[in-house]
Amino acid sequence: MREQTRTIPIVFVLVVDPVGLGFAQSLARPGGNITGFSGYDAPMMGKWLQLLKKVAPRISRVAVIFNPDTAPYAPLFNREIEAAAPSLGMTVKLAPVHDDATIEEAIASQGREPGGSLLTLPDSFNATHRDAIIAAASRLSLPLMGLIDIFPRAGALMSYGIDPVDLYAQAASYIDRILKGASPADLPVQQPTKFSLVINLKTARALGLTVPPSMLDLADEVIE
To answer: Are the C-beta atoms of residues 18 and 36 closer than 8 Å to each other?
Structure first.
């Protein structure tokens, strides 16, 4: 859309790293015809590892599952995850996948030694292949954290992510303001403020994990 017009206003939703991708000059002042609501920011990526470690304290390794073809923002995510891991006593293995066979291979590799776990990036490929990812993780008793709630609902250990419905609702307010004369160049890019923690207690028990009561209190949804 940006290649088609530099004048017609564009409001995006769920774009990761809009400044890095060249959609905005800065978050505070986009400066062009594009503004909107980003999907994730850097501090949240470390939060994923912290939550996973709280529920599964014995883990020392995490494999990050992503498809580079459908997750162009993966380098940003992976850098932040790798930066956060040492303070939690964890090492990170990047596991790019493209089909069910490479999913099986990546997860089997993580399961060959103790202390392994899995993290799936918010990727359309991962979402559509979640059953294969969850099945492989279950066979090898690996804690799996997804970043969208469809993962724990399908059998993963947990998820912590943004509320996309809320972001789309907020985007409508920007469209309204633009139609009333506001310029996208002056409307700051907004970052998410509403997050959801979902824990699958049944999966935790199957993995021999005890979820701390404090985590259950924080959870927006507990699946039993």
So the answer is: yes
State how far the Cα of 46 lies from the Cα of 79, in Å rounded to an integer: 10
Provide the H-helix boundaries in the chain: 42-55, 74-84, 100-110, 124-128, 130-139, 150-153, 164-179, 201-206, 213-218
Give the tens place of pLDDT for each residue, 132-190: 999 999 999 999 999 889 999 999 999 998 888 888 999 999 999 999 999 999 999 99
Tokens coding 54: 């709280």
Q: pTM of the prediction? A: 0.86
Angle at 48 between CA 47 and CA 49, to 5 degrees: 90
Tell me which amino acid residue 179 is: L
β-bridge mates for residue 96, sequence order: 66
Nearest to 161 by CA among 52, 48, 85: 48
